[in-house]
Design brief:
Rossmann fold; seven-stranded parallel sheet; 16% strand; elongated
Length: 425
């Protein structure tokens, strides 16, 4: 049966995928960038690998995009501290590759080639890793099979397997069963995920629940963020600060009117909003929402601050630091499709508000269950929760404590993963 799936994947799936990617490249700049970036992938890998110290072992970390790579960073950093190793990192997406080319703990940075049999075997034969670590879910079958052929162990780290995962559908389940069997170790986020992988017939020796490195990563970054001074103390002095992060228009349709109404009754509240895509059009839209009710100022003009009640962030990459100023946070994406990372706010010991679309986030569900998270479904609920949180300080701090304790008790996944890696290398 494995041979059947092998032929199906290489004779049907990969040719179709190639056609789709090529066609998408004609209309999508991001896809086109990925195609162009792979044009000389093997030549560049050979040239760059030639400068490596071959006496050192090489560990290959693969992530789909920048978000998944954030979860690999705590592991890579600790590995480079404790062992004399070379680190290769690869990405599927251009955003991950372009933003990580200068990552200080990497010795080689590359795209992963399209997952044909010849590409995979050529890539593995050039890189010759001693171990491959794939983050979360971006698992390319021909690369897995090539590593098996060359006797190179592979891990999946921060692995999840939801109860409703499409990988459990009959045909997909059969395919993934044979794929997962060739993975040396699947290190999952939770025991429930272990149970999910066992449904594919994976044995106990190949499975282990170790936790989620996102907790370690966000905690490390929060320590650094607290040392930054992005906003002058006098601007937020004696203010109650509400930070809305990674928001989309559907989030703002709920949050902005609720805050505007709150601001009528509470003169000490101030809002910092960081849209997920701070385009000029998006920034103008937020300003227009408050026109005639509240004064706004863009973050880049804060030197001219004159008691505006709404600060609109017109840059990216500073959200984690902005949460340090918050008494209460809202995390966006939760009214659009998928919520963004709630841990970035929870790590500061504040309550975290979000909309109803949290199926993609175990962390949001856990925060809600424990009481550190606050679910809102519309403008009325948003206003009521804002009014309650900012008028009842004891309740707000109690919920914030729950948020921090949730993060704190889930630290340590990196150390457990390192133990598994050290057993192999």
């Amino acid at each position: 049966m494995k041979t059947v799936w092998y032929l199906f994947y290489n004779c049907l799936v990969i040719p179709c995928l190639y056609i789709i990617i090529r066609a998408a490249g004609l209309f999508n700049k991001k896809v086109k960038s990925g195609i162009e970036g792979r044009a000389r992938i093997f030549e560049e890998l050979i040239l760059n690998a030639a400068s490596l110290d071959k006496s050192k072992k090489l560990i290959w970390f693969h992530s789909s995009s920048l978000g998944e790579f954030e979860q690999a960073k705590p592991i890579i950093k600790e590995l480079k501290k404790g062992k004399n190793l070379n680190i290769l990192i690869t990405f599927f997406s251009p955003s991950g590759y372009e933003n990580s080319k200068k990552y200080p703990y990497a010795d080689l940075v590359s795209y992963i080639p399209l997952d044909t049999k010849s590409n995979a075997e050529r890539f593995i034969s050039i890189a010759r890793p001693d171990l491959a670590v794939m983050m979360r879910y971006d698992i390319w079958p021909n690369h897995v099979w090539a590593m098996k052929k060359f006797f190179i162990p592979s891990f999946i780290v921060d692995a999840t397997m939801k109860d409703n995962s499409p990988r459990k559908l009959p045909l997909a389940k059969s395919f993934h069963k044979y794929l997962f069997e060739d993975i040396a170790k699947i290190l999952t986020v939770s025991e429930n995920d272990v149970k999910g992988f066992k449904q594919f017939g994976i044995s106990d020796e190949h499975l282990k629940a170790v936790g989620d490195t996102r907790f370690d990563r966000v905690y490390q970054r929060s320590i650094t963020a607290k040392e930054k001074n992005l906003i002058k103390d006098d601007i937020l002095k004696n203010k109650k600060v509400f930070v809305a992060g990674s928001t989309w228009e559907l989030d703002e349709d709920v949050i902005l009117p609720a805050f505007a109404k709150l601001a009528e009754y509470d003169k000490d509240v101030i809002m910092i909003i960081a849209p997920h895509e701070p385009t000029l059009v998006h920034l103008d839209r937020i300003e227009n929402e408050f026109a005639g009710t509240l004064d706004t100022i863009r973050f880049s003009f804060l030197n001219n601050y004159k008691n505006e009640r709404v600060i609109i962030v017109d840059s990216i990459g500073i959200l984690l630091t902005l949460y340090t100023y918050a008494d209460l946070a809202f995390v966006g994406g939760s009214f659009k499709q998928n919520i963004h990372n709630v841990l970035e706010a929870a790590v500061y010991g504040i309550p975290v508000m979000f909309g109803p679309r949290i199926d993609n986030s175990q962390e949001s569900q856990q925060l809600l269950r424990r009481g550190g998270g606050i679910l809102i479904r519309n403008k009325i609920e948003a206003y009521r929760q804002l009014r309650t949180m900012f008028s009842e300080e004891i309740l707000r701090k109690a919920k914030g404590k729950i948020s921090f304790e949730y993060v704190k008790e889930n630290l340590g996944a990196t150390e457990k993963i390192l133990e598994e890696i050290n057993r192999v290398i």
